[in-house]
Design a protein that fits this description.
By secondary structure, the protein is an alpha+beta fold. It has a single domain, classed as START domain (Alpha-D-Glucose-1,6-Bisphosphate, Chain A, domain 4, 2-Layer Sandwich). The chain contains three helices and seven strands; from the N terminus they run E-H-H-E-E-E-E-E-E-H. A hairpin with a 6-residue loop joins strand 4 and strand 5. Helix 1 packs across helix 3. The longest helix has 23 residues.
Amino acid sequence: MIKTMTDRAAQTSLINASLARCYAVALDFESYPEWATDVKEANIIARDDQGRASQVEFRASALGRSTHYTLRYDYSDAPARLSWSLVDGDIMRAIDGAYSFVAVEDGTQVFYEVAIELVIPLPGFVKRRAEARILDTVKELKARAES
């Protein structure tokens, strides 16, 4: 029997770019389709009183299909941390995640963490493959920030 549960993944990476540059790349949601392989569309649907995207609707490829989800962003620890949570999604019950940024001598240490609960249970090998794709986001952020 397969149980539905929250799956967590985390990764850290040293990026040879300033914290400000890394943070700016992470905040440029409308450019995600240019560098985040699985993101096909990103539309800002709400902004906070400082003009930052507070809700973003995404279309992405996941598990061999197209999925839609909307995330709410939290800037309370900016620019050290950018966190998000699910507002609405077609195959997810919950998504909670964050980028944490720490300036270091050679650039920025970025820690990425995400917890996802899907509507339907998946076998372990499918989850591991999906986790690897999700964690590729850090490599793609690194490539974008260093370019």
